[in-house]
Amino acid sequence: xxxxxxxxxxxxxxxDHTTGLGSIDPKPVCFQGPQRKVVLDTNVLVSLYVFADSxxxxxxxxxxxGEWQAYSDAPCLDEFRRxxxxxxxxxxxxxxxxARAAYESKVIPLDGARPGPLVSLPRCRDRDDQxxxxxxxxxxxxxxxxxxxxxxxLARRDRLRGxxxxxxxxxxxxxx
Length: 176
Fold this sequence. Notes:
Blueprint: E1 36-40, H1 42-49, H2 57-65, E2 68-72, H3 74-84, H4 93-104, E3 108-109, H5 130-139, E4 143-145, H6 149-156, E5 165-167, H7 169-174
Parallel strand pairs: 1-2, 1-4, 2-3, 4-5
Helix pairs in contact: 3-4
C-alpha cells in the first residue's frame, strides 16, 4: 500500500540535483484543475529547475502537463540565465543550459504586443522585481508565484485585487 499523497508525481529513485531534470517523470501525474496563467519569479524557477525541490514537484507537474501556462519575457528570462551563473550555485555551463532549456521548452514567451490592459501597478520596493509584476499584468496571469519578501509584502497589502494574485509556492500548491 502506497503512502504517497495523491496528485504527487511518482519518482524512480532520488531526485537529480545536478540539473533539476529527471526529478519529475517524463509523463507527470496531471491534475484535473482549471487551466491557469502563471508567472514564476527567479527564486521559484531555481527551486523547480535547478534543485528540483520535491516539495514543489506538483507545481512543475502543472506546467509540464499544461494545466498551468507559464509566461515569461526577455527581461525575466535574462535574469534566470544570469542567476544560474552565480558562483554560489557552482553550476557548469551544461547544467545551466539544461535548466534553461527545461523551463524555456514549456514557457510561453510574451514579447512585443501585450494582450492585457495596461492597469496601473504599485511600485515594488526592489526595482528588479517590478518586471514580474508587469509581466503578470501583461500576460493576464492568474498568479505570480514567488518567495520574494518585497513582492509578498504587496500581496499582504492587497493592492492587486482583481488583477492577479501573488502566492508563495506553498500557497500555490493549494490554489484552485
